[in-house]
Give the backbone structure.
Amino acid sequence: MKEIARLRAEIRGHDRRYYVENAPTISDQEYDRLMAELRALETAQPELITPDSPTQRVGGQPLAGFAAVRHAVPLLSMDNTYSEADLQAFDQRVRDALGVMLVEYVIELKFDGLAVALRYENRCLVQGATRGDGTTGDEVTANVKTIRALPLQLDGVAPPGVLDIRGEV
């Protein structure tokens, strides 16, 4: 129990430095190691899992000064992997879920950025929001409009009346 409490406190401190202060003090790999250690302890003792455990959330808290945006569909995060065995296990889960023998993947280098959700209504960009905690993020429409590669209006094929796009900037 003391080790779980210690890990939670340490991870919360790292979350604050990364997500709120934008000043991380450990590598992503070291952070993932701490989270994996906490998950393993909680898996072994599920009665000790609490709703406020870092394992029960996606990202950081919205910042003061920004309006809050509630995501229509949670904006979740992907897990990390550091070994070939992890990749093979992921591939097996995908093939099992799809009921197929072979899946083709496109792999890109990970660029650490800011996860955003963009909402277009009737082809026009109406909202940009950060991931936040996965359910509620920060409204950053004016900020994303400064990204010149981001269309303010969609041209070409007619999209649905409301289109949500998620990605990293």
Summary: Residues 127 and 141 are 5 Å apart (CA to CA). The longest helix spans residues 2-20. The domain at 2-56 is CATH 1.10.287.610 (Helix Hairpins).
